[in-house]
Amino acid sequence: MGKNQSLTLPWPLILASTSKYRGSLLAQLGFPFESIAPGVDEDEFKDKGLSPSDLATKLSALKARAVFLKRPDGCVIGSDQVCHVDGIILGKPHSTEKAIDQLLSMQGKTHELLTAVTVINPKGEETFLNRTVLKMRPLKKQSIENYVHLDSPLDCAGSYKLESGGIKLFESIETQDHTAIIGLPLIELANLLVKQGYTI
Predict the structure, then answer these.
(1) Domains in the chain, start-ordered, CATH in brackets?
(2) Residue 86 catalytic?
């Protein structure tokens, strides 16, 4: 829940996610909001041959639309993040072994982190996509194992937490908004919300 309860909002703000990362990010904007799980089966769409950018965009829209059906009085924010190396999508590892394997596949390479956001309110729907390019330094397996045990990034696409110890894995990062890396690009989202009548 956002902190500033005194703000007058054009519509109630709703985050179509129960992710602690996205909730913490949205709270930084200071708007009161509620979080609702969208209930979208992401795995159903991962084998449909969509490009990484199309997959992220589609899933962000599906999440927002699912929650908007329940709350058509609100302004719903849906987001999805896809990490890929040369078009091969890397999901959340959910296990130490898979996290190590993912990081090994990226070491010494450049990969993309795509973060899509869809905002729906009674006046319409708008989607944008943030691209972050990251180059991971060449790493030995022992270094990767040490990192995974340090940060336990098992619920993170790509198996790293840049806001924590994961920053040391990278040689360079190119992004217009560092918050996109964590899961919600706040700069462009704030621009969109201001355009729709939310007062900063």
Answers:
(1) 13-195 (3.90.950.10)
(2) no
Selecting among 54, 73, 80, 101, the annotated active-site residue is 80
Higher pLDDT, 147 or 156: 147
Question: Model-level pTM greater than 0.70?
Answer: yes
Looking at 32-46, 119-133, 172-186, which range is the least confident one? Answer: 32-46
Give yes or no for residue 7 having a pLDDT over 80: no
Q: Which of 180, 187, 191 is nearest to 60 (CA)?
A: 180
pLDDT classification of 3: cutoffs 50, 70, 90? low
